[in-house]
Amino acid sequence: MIMKSISLLVISLILSCGWALAQNDKISFNETEHDFGKIGEKDGKVSFDFLLKNNGTDPVVLTNVTASCGCTTPKWTREPIEKGKTGTITVTYDPLRRVGSFTKTVSIFYSGQSEPLKVRIKGEVLSGEVAKKNVDVKQVYPVAIGDYLLKTKDLDFGQSGAQEAKTIRLDVYNNSDNPVNQKVLKLPKYLRVVFNPEVIPPKTAATIDVVLNVLDENTYGNLSGNITMVINGVNQNFPYSATIIDNFSQWSATRKANAGKVALSAAEINFGNLTSGSSRTLKISNSGKSVLNIRSIHSSDPAISVSKTHFSINPGEIDEVKVNANEKNIKTKLATTLTVISDDPNQPISEVSVLASK
Fold this sequence. Notes:
This protein is mainly beta. It has helices at 2-20, 128-133, 137-140, 253-257, and strands at residues 27-29, 33-40, 46-54, 62-67, 72-76, 86-93, 100-110, 117-126, 143-145, 148-150, 155-161, 166-174, 180-184, 191-196, 199-200, 204-212, 221-231, 234-245, 262-264, 268-273, 279-286, 292-299, 304-306, 311-313, 318-325, 333-342, 349-357. It folds into three domains: 2-129, Immunoglobulin-like; 135-245, Immunoglobulins (Immunoglobulin-like, Sandwich), CATH 2.60.40; 257-357, Immunoglobulins (Immunoglobulin-like), CATH 2.60.40. Helix content is 9%, strand content 52%. The longest helix is centred in the N-terminal third of the chain and has 19 residues, at 2-20.
């Protein structure tokens, strides 16, 4: 029991000496620990002057001042500090690319002493946008999944070329007092998710890169589904969508000028009352100089289907597609879109409105 008490006393003395030594009978400071509070990542460097007063009888010379990392830079009074006079140690912290809480120690070496005095700075670096606007993070990140905040969950890639990588970056913020763990469940082969970082510290901004890259040249048309991310053990769905067309950026000017040219026989197909028939004909012509490849024909409603979805049309020719309406899948009225994807570089996407009623 006596040995345990002695051990506890020794540990207490060691812990107290670390910061008690920052001030002694000979030297005192205006502060031994400075809290910058919340600062903006992109608002520039911040500085604080630690004022050191010589309370002894002999001059004090600061022989060296060091910081615990390269993000913290000290400058100090070089000339001797006479009795009763004050010297300055200016400590500057650079918050750029250092979002999150920080604590940095500065060691002060001076004449006649082998052990340094220590002061420290601390604070919290906020992502530039949050700090600059000085508003509640929930205004900057309005989509909330508990304390996991996002600017948006929108993963609409729009038009994307086959074999062309396209990235959407999601901005997120951990508004809790605990780290947030993120991971993603199984993805289709054309999607990739990168967390920056995977574990988000408390009160810290982060990003998620969602990368779409369709390598299969035969995958054209509308892609959609859900990406399931696991946030602190809870599954969260993030809907995505994209329309895959040819990657025309890889085509030469000559190839584009000589490409096929699509034209549809109608901008609208109206079945009217389905008692008058459940099939209509859509004619597709090619007025270009090369073969026109129809990559995909897709309906946004399962009640509408087509007789074929991909085929080729020679220059000057016309092909036909049967558009079918399934009466069983239509309740009272239907208004949908038929999307035709082709390798016409001037009009890769053509749309036809489809109407029906019962």
